[in-house]
Amino acid sequence: MSLITKDSVNSNSNENKINSFNFVLTLEQKKELDEKYRLLALYHTYINNYLEFYIKNLEQENQILKARFPNVIFTFLSRIKSEHSYREKLERKGEALDIFADKLIILSVDGKTNEDLLIATSYDMENFLNTYSQDIEVIPRKRKDYIAKPKTNGYSSLHNTKKIIIKDKKSNFFRETQIKTFRMRETEETGLASHFTVYKSDRLSFLSRITDQKTAEYFLPKYMHFEYDRTRQQDKLILDSFESRFRYYFGINYSDFVKDKTIYQK
Questions:
Q1: pLDDT tens digits, residue range 194-247?
Q2: What percent of the chain has pLDDT over 90?
Q3: pLDDT, tens only, 22-80
Q4: Euclidean distance between the first and final Cα of the chain, in Å?
Q5: What does the angle CA 188 – CA 223 – CA 142 come to, to the nearest 5 degrees?
Q6: Which of 30, 181, 227, 241 gives 25 a disulfide partner, CB atoms 3.0 to 4.6 angstroms apart?
Q7: Is 14 contained in some domain?
Q8: Three-state SS for 139?
Q9: Which residues span the domain enclosing 186?
Q10: Structural contact between residues 86 and 99, judged by C-beta atoms closer than 8 angstroms
Q11: % residues pLDDT > 70 (the chain)
Q12: Per-residue pLDDT tens for 27-42?
């Protein structure tokens, strides 16, 4: 049996103090950790508290644009970022202001599809969307003009990020809007700039981690599109089905994936 002396107690006490000291955070470290937890929790705050306001904002904007540009045929597509993609971007860039994002795709102007005309209209619509309401604050540093300077893979679009103010709740959320012509959208869908081409290896690796629909939703964005609601007599945002979102994102039917799941989980 070992003998416990006063010196040994003091020695152990000093060692514990040293070990404890190693885990004490500085004020700056604590602030950084608190901010990281806040940003991680922000995703669920957007989904639970702001989603209804985003949908309302986009539906109103769709109506306003139709009234302001009656000679323009366009469509909106909406995307809610997946939790996995949000966390990954947060880790990589330190911020992710595009949990809510949408694409404004211009199809024709006065029945014409001349690309120069569609591009000119893109800038006109961008200017209008950034100035039509006092409840919108544009984030200048987040504006990207990939029409004037396309990416090397051919990607073209106007990117704008705005802060949408919710007066009733005395709060706000961020939203990204991409404005592009239908030809730019085709390049984005089928060319070298397509998300599936750019992120194919990442998406295939996600399949190895999916065990059921719930885990699939962690990796899967939520897509929405407009449909005409006869009861309301206006366009209404509709959430795409899980099956269609899974097929679009991964390039395979969920039912086929379930049957051959072992192929992707090697």
A1: 655 545 567 778 998 999 999 999 999 999 999 999 998 889 999 999 999 999
A2: 66
A3: 557 787 767 666 677 788 899 999 999 999 999 999 999 999 999 999 999 999 999 99
A4: 53
A5: 60
A6: 30
A7: no
A8: coil
A9: 28-198
A10: yes
A11: 83
A12: 776 766 667 778 889 9
In a domain, 63, yes or no: yes
Question: 42 is written with which tokens?
Answer: 């922000």
* Dist CA 67 CA 47 (whole Å): 30
Query: For the domain that residue 107 is a member of, what is the CATH number?
Result: 3.30.460.10
| Residue 254 pLDDT grade (very low, low, confident, very high; cuts 50, 70, 90) | very high
Q: What is the pLDDT of residue 261?
A: 75
* Any domain includes 112: yes
Which three-class secondary structure string do you get for 193-253? Answer: CCHHHHCHHHHHHHHCCCCCHHHHHHHCCEEEEEEEECCCCEEEEEECCHHHHHHHHHCCC
- Report pLDDT for 264: 66
Distance CA 179, CA 191 (A): 18
* Residues 6+ away with beta carbon under 8 Å from 84: 206, 218, 219
What 55-59 contacts at long range (C-beta under 8 Å, 24+ apart), as own/partner pairs, is 55/224, 55/237, 57/164, 57/175, 58/102, 58/237, 59/234, 59/235, 59/236, 59/237
Q: Could you give the CA distance from residue 137 to residue 160 in angstroms, rounded to a whole number?
A: 11
Total number of residues shown for the chain: 266
Q: Are 44 and 87 spatial neighbours (Cβ–Cβ below 8 Å)? A: no
Q: Is 221 inside a domain boundary? A: no
Q: Dihedrals φ, ψ of 233, to 5°? A: 55, 45
- Residue 34 corresponds to which amino acid? D
Contact status, residue 146 vs residue 156, Cβ threshold 8 Å: yes
Beta-carbon neighbour count of residue 170 at 10 Å?
7
Domain total in the chain: 1
